[in-house]
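Shipment paperwork, digital attachment
Item: protein structure file
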Amino acid sequence: LPGLVIACYVTETELPAEHRAEMLRYLRNHQNEDGGTGLHIEGHSTMFGTSLNYVAARLLGMAADDPHCLRARAFMHGRGGAVNNTSWAKFWLALLGVYEWRGINPLPPEMWILPYWLIVHPGRFWCHCRMVYLPMSYLYGKRAACPPTPLTEALRKELYVEPYSEIAWEEQRNNCGPADMYVQHHPLQDLLWKVVAAAEPWIPAWLRRRALSWCADMILHEDGSTRHVDIGPVNKAINMVCCWYDDPHGEAFKAHLPRIFDYLWLAEDGMKMQGYNGSQAWDTAFAVQAIAASGLGEEAEVSPILRKAHEYLDASQVREDCPEVERYYRHISNGAWPFSTQDPADRSRPAV
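Attachment content:
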């Protein structure tokens, strides 16, 4: 949810007032007793969850002196401020303009134009990893950041213990608080980051342009192949920002806007962003199997239900591959079924 809220703020996309109110209710309902917020609603408080949910609350209209914000700030400041954070949190904060890009380990888009036979080529990554780091590397390569606003200037003061201008950003690249540190970096990994960071200023401008152009092409392919739903909520929000930076008035960006609502879900605790746009085909298939296993399929009144389920599953089958599967590091999907609907058609992942 915070990523979507940040993406909407950066792209000057206004969410409906009713949506903002329900999102704020959700954020209030899941603040932990210590003032922080977890990686998920049952998790211990982390700097990642607290800082991004704090930013989301402020962007949605919550005042800085609201008790919710006061408790969250106390949690963050008591643990050194938002510099003690994860790489994804630093990415979102940098995109918003409340963290400096030089405080992030490099995400060079040139990785995408390396020979594919190299084991480190991003095209070999797991699909969810690949499709998130693709737009991240694009925005990193452009050093895209929201222009300063009174609210972002206020957030620069609220998120950190020390003055924003005095933070040694390069020293924060591997800085991560203990609550967020699940696996310690290997020293060789940190050394590799240092080497890449030192080499990046020497990358020729023409090579950076070529890499960004190829990344933009792959982003558009992902959007088109999934009808702008994308493989999940994270790259959905980041891809939308990429399209906006490419052309804020273009059709590629405009096509993203109505698909935002595919991910939003209103429940008793407020409005949240789902991990996918649903599980319709998955649920239907399991429901049919349960009916068959129970013997209810023999009942006359159940027959119409099974007939409709069959019609739905037949209509949900993917009947084509996405264009140029090998060029864009995709799997075949013709004849497979999606997890949810025909819109994303799961064509970013292996067919099932």
